[in-house]
Amino acid sequence: MAIFCVGQAVYDITAPYTGPLQANQKYRITKSHGCSGAPALNAACLCSKWGAPAELVARIGNDPYGTLVRADLDATA
């Protein structure tokens, strides 16, 4: 029996910044890190890595970020 994970699948982009943040200021980001995530996607990937058959039911956009999510899912299969 498969575990169905129903919910979101997104591509998260984080930008590290180590200085103090001040109101009404602009900051230049020189590096960023991206990865697929969201509760349903994370749960499906974790179940799969633990050896449980898992299915992800989520909308994935037909855009560059959707392509990255699909690539991440293919890499974990």
Q: How much of the residues is beta strand, in percent? A: 15-25%
Unreliable segments of 5+ consecutive residues: none
Number of strands: 4
C-alpha Rg (nearest Å): 16 Å
Give the H and E element order: EEEHEH
Q: Globular, elongated, flat, extended or rod-shaped: what is the shape? A: elongated
Strand order of the largest sheet: 1-4
Account of the 3D structure:
The structure is a single chain. The longest helix has 13 residues, at about 65-75. By secondary structure, this protein is α+β, with helices and mostly antiparallel strands. It starts with a strand and ends with a helix. It is elongated and about 50 Å long. About 30% of the residues lie in helices and about 25% in strands. The mean pLDDT is about 90. The strands form two sheets. Strands 1-4 form a two-stranded parallel ribbon. It contains two helices and four strands.
What would a concise description of this structure say?
With 77 residues, the chain is α+β, with helices and mostly antiparallel strands.
Summary tags:
single chain, 77 residues, two-stranded parallel ribbon, 2 helices, 31% helix, 23% strand
What's the topology here?
Elements: E1 3-6, E2 10-14, E3 33-37, H1 39-49, E4 54-57, H2 64-76
Parallel strand pairs: 1-4
Antiparallel strand pairs: 2-3
